[in-house]
Specification:
The structure holds two protein chains of two kinds. Chain A is mainly α. Chain A has helices spanning 24-35, 46-62, 67-80, 120-136, 142-153, 160-177, 182-204, 209-229, 236-243, 250-261, 265-297, and strands at residues 86-91, 94-99, 107-112. In chain A, helix 3 packs parallel to helix 4 (120-136) and helix 7 crosses helix 9 (236-243). The radius of gyration of chain B is 17 Å and the shape is globular. The chains are: A mainly alpha, B mainly alpha.
């Protein structure tokens, strides 16, 4: 009789299972139930289990969770659902996983996850759900978990007006703490509004991310120059630094170095290259607009 | 002066936690973590610490606070960490590096680039050390947490 390492007592029901790996946990319950005269557990489809865990990982990754958190969550969910033999490999732009061993036909899954914007709310929601899965395990149908995950994925963003206000005040605040004067910050309040309006409008039509960043940098510079011309603000440089804060890849750069420290060299490299490219695009946008502006007004470049 | 900086940093971090789509119930905690981290950075710099040391210390404090809030609020620490670290991340530095590069000022680009890498590196080290503290410590500190 096929017997797995995790199940150290012979069970009369075990003889019939087809896939060792997926049924380990149910099997243990099986054994207990059988010895206590209980009922059989329902069969679990291994591919469905894997797909569910991958979906959770995908949502986490595309919303900016750390590599090790994604890996941990996928493994957690798999184990809670009774899978012991798993191999999960997470990159910053994809997930690869295999479950299974010699005793059962293995299942594979690959997901392509492009780098996306950070959405902390969805990460929180998936985290809560993964705790729920860990607590309830196979006692709830997989399709129910799946529906909840899909709900996490489409969690709506905060209202438009709130994003506008947050961008405006946030930029002004950073302009101030990074060395700008009060007058600079007040000018940046307006630029922040314009920037968020641009980002939202651009988000509706999917365009190349880098074109958007170049345009964003140029727009911010133009807006700040006009505000300065209108008499509000002291230093164009300080105003620009404050108002490009929503665009600059500071978090991405720090994440890249953290990936290196965690031993995820490939993911770190991907994040690093992304951060450098994003910064370069912003600099091109700002630089071109500054050059244009100084040509237009005859004032030397800031 | 530091008090004004603290308040502005709290408000700015709160705003960016909104832009990062953090759950609304965590806005205030995100803001506080960011504000305290920024103030630690300022004070460490004023006391004569190097930029690297100041970054390391504040990253350590931010990570500790983020993990405390994470246990207290039953939320992944990433939420507080990403929002709280935002005032410190070298966003302006990486922009200056790229800008100097395009302006043809290579020595400035090299200097800024090195500075940016050092900041990002020490921040990551601070986070690493803060993450090394066992979770049980934070659970012990938060054991008096009022039930929901």
């Amino acid at each position: 009789m096929a017997r797995s390492a995790a199940c150290d007592i012979d069970c009369t029901a075990c003889g019939q299972y087809k896939a060792t790996l997926v049924h380990l946990q149910p099997l243990q319950a099986h054994c207990k139930f059988n010895f206590m005269g209980g009922t059989h557990m329902t069969e679990v489809n291994p591919q469905e289990t894997l797909d569910l865990a991958m979906l959770a990982g995908e949502i986490l990754l595309e919303n900016g969770a750390e590599i090790f958190r994604v890996q941990e969550t996928v493994i957690h969910i798999l184990e809670a659902l009774g899978v012991r033999n798993h191999n999960v490999y997470v990159l910053s732009s994809g997930i690869f996983a295999t479950i299974g061993d010699d005793a059962a036909p293995p299942c594979h899954a690959v997901r392509n996850v492009p780098l996306g914007k950070i959405h902390l709310g969805r990460i929180t929601a998936v985290n809560e759900l993964s705790r729920e899965i860990a607590a309830k395990g196979n006692s709830v149908a997989l399709s129910q978990y799946r529906d909840k995950l899909l709900a996490c994925r489409t969690l709506p963003p905060v209202p438009f007006w709130l994003q506008m206000a947050a961008c405006s005040v946030g930029c002004a605040g950073f302009c101030y703490i990074l060395g700008g004067s009060l007058r600079d910050s007040i000018g940046v309040l307006l630029t922040g509004l314009i920037l968020q309006l641009f980002l939202t409008l651009r988000g509706r039509r999917s365009q190349n991310k880098f074109i958007g960043l170049i345009l964003g940098g140029a727009l911010v510079t133009l807006s700040n120059s006009l505000i300065l011309l209108a008499g509000l603000g002291d230093s164009l440089n300080q105003m620009i630094i404050g108002s490009i804060m929503p665009l600059v890849p500071g978090v991405a750069l720090t994440t890249a170095i953290r990936d290196f420290f965690n031993g995820d060299y490939l993911s770190g490299t991907i994040h690093l290259v992304d951060a450098l490219l994003v910064a370069a695009c912003i600099a091109v946008g700002v630089g071109v607009m500054l050059a244009f502006w100084s040509w237009l007004t005859g004032v030397a470049m800031a | 002066m530091n008090l004004i900086q603290f308040i502005v940093a709290v408000i700015a971090t709160m705003c960016f936690s909104i832009l990062f789509q953090a759950p609304p119930r965590h806005y205030v905690f995100c803001g506080l973590v960011g504000g305290v981290g920024w103030t630690v950075y300022l004070i460490a710099s004023q006391l004569g610490g190097s930029q690297a040391l100041a970054c390391f210390l504040s990253a350590l404090v931010i990570t500790t606070l983020a993990r405390l809030s994470s246990v207290w609020r039953k939320t992944p620490s990433t939420v507080f960490l990403i929002a709280g670290i935002f005032p410190l991340v070298p966003g302006a530095g990486i922009y200056f590096t790229a800008y100097s590069l395009f302006a043809g000022d290579y020595s400035q680009a090299a200097a800024k680039g090195m500075e940016t890498l050092i900041i990002a590196g020490t921040l990551s080290l601070g986070i690493l050390f803060g993450s090394a503290v066992p979770q049980a410590v934070f659970q012990w500190i938060c054991r008096l947490r009022p039930p929901k």
